[in-house]
Amino acid sequence: MNPIFARTSVRQWTDEPVSDEQILNILKAGMQAPSAMNARPWSFVVVTNPELKKQLSEISPYSHFAADAPVLLAVLCHKDNACPPYNAIDMGICIENMLLEITAQNLGGVCLGVAPLKERMEAMAKLLKLKEDIEPYALIPLGHPAGPAKVQDRFDPKRIEWIR
Fold first, then answer.
1. Taking the CB of residue 67, how many other CB atoms lie within 10 A of it?
2. Structural domain of residue 46, as residue ranges?
3. Residue 15 lies in a domain
4. What is the total count of domains within the chain?
């Protein structure tokens, strides 16, 4: 099935490990995203350390479950790049590519927003010891889903206007 229509947000995982090859394929999918002026503003930190996962899961009241994920991908944005006004679009495309690849590999994950909330960004930057020119953007906890995913059909023809 096309991963676009199979993708759903997964917040519970088994203890089964995610291979380095799977992680690299997810990161490759993210880096394959188009970006304004080919700026490619992204970089990533792969976190499997249990204590750091727990600390990162505490930067938002909505992310406590992330501590239980086998892998956390910290998605980062380089502020100083060829086309900063388009960072939000570029990062969104990158993250969606990653979520689709997670689904294609029969894994499950969810995007947890960090940017633009300053307190979350500062907490994540401190935990990851980021340089000044790198901004935390999102966290993606992932792993093997604990149960079957419930996919929603989100197509809504009322949101379409045809001008011919």
1. 17
2. 20-144
3. no
4. 1
